[in-house]
Automatic annotation (TrEMBL):
Enzyme Commission number(s) of this protein: 2.3.1.30
Pathway: Amino-acid biosynthesis; L-cysteine biosynthesis; L-cysteine from L-serine: step 1/2
Protein name: Serine acetyltransferase
Name of the gene: cysE
Record keywords: Acyltransferase, Amino-acid biosynthesis, Repeat, Transferase
Length: 283
């Protein structure tokens, strides 16, 4: 880990009363302005000319999503949601901290804000969910559609997410309407939290706190993924997963413990110490 990333992570943990996170991002934007003149417009438009971190996130997401519904209208929707529910802004902050803490490729706080579509996708969903629960279902569905186009994620607006969510890469993520994802969960690309067919009602997974879902995993049905468990890459999970365990295979089965206290933070996708036979495919 480089010195820049060490510094960003220290800032994330700063408990001072001032807005240390936003001040640090402003300094990172000023550094970009000084070093890369070609990036001046991006740094100015989405950071240096914004009044707060929440304002910057809203403007950046709105810019990436604008289309039939304009960027300004989407920005206004973000502003209304943030004003009505300050917990949305708190979630923005928890999510960007999660990226810096868990993504080895992220060296600065400004990187998720400007560039990472996984971060933009989860913040877009937070607006869509607020709209959905406040009766603006068509605009919420529009955001779901635009997020699918812009970020390659398809999250139903009714799905409920906690804070401290890390969507690593995010490409190919699909989340159904009755899914629940609790705090401090990490999800990699090509993951599905889906149903098992045409059943109605509560039909999607419930992912508890601290879970890591590795690339390509499919979790189907109204089943619980226990707290601080780990779902291995490419697994197809059809049955509940006990807390603090690792599941792997097609169909998935328990192959060991989670291997650490908080898999979502550890981000270890290797099944060290487990024999191949313990998670071989069923025919």
């Amino acid at each position: 880990m480089g010195a820049t990333q060490d510094n960003s992570r220290a800032i994330v943990a700063d408990a001072a009363g001032r807005d240390a996170l936003w001040e640090h991002i402003l300094r990172e934007a000023e550094d970009i302005l000084a070093r890369e003149p070609a990036m001046a417009s991006l740094a100015l438009t989405f950071v240096l000319n914004r009044r707060s971190f929440e304002d910057a996130v809203a403007r950046r997401c709105a810019a990436r999503l604008g289309g039939a519904v304009t960027e300004d209208l989407l920005f206004d929707a973000f502003a209304r949601a943030l004003d009505a529910d300050p917990a949305i802004g708190d979630a923005f902050r928890a999510d960007i901290k999660a990226v810096v803490e868990r993504d080895a490729a992220c060296g600065r706080l400004i990187e998720p804000l400007l560039f990472f579509k996984g971060f933009h996708a989860i913040e877009t969903h937070r607006l869509a969910h607020w709209l959905w629960t406040n009766g603006q279902t068509d605009l919420a569905l529009y955001l779901q559609s635009r997020s699918s186009d812009a970020f390659q994620t398809d999250i139903h607006p009714a799905a409920r997410f906690g804070r401290g969510i890390f969507l690593d890469h995010a490409t190919g993520l699909v989340v159904g309407a009755t899914a629940v994802v609790e705090d401090d969960v990490s999800i990699l690309q090509s993951v599905t939290l889906g149903g098992t067919g045409k059943e109605s009602g509560d039909r999607h997974p419930k992912v508890r706190r601290g879970v890591m879902i590795a690339a390509g995993a499919k979790i189907l049905g109204n089943i619980e993924i226990g707290a601080c468990s780990r779902v291995a890459a490419g697994s197809v999970v059809l049955h509940p997963v006990p807390r603090n365990s690792t599941v792997a295979g097609v169909p998935a089965k328990v192959v060991g413990t989670a291997g650490c206290a908080e898999p979502a933070r550890d981000m270890d996708q290797f099944l060290n110490g487990l024999s191949y036979d313990s998670f071989s495919y069923s025919i």
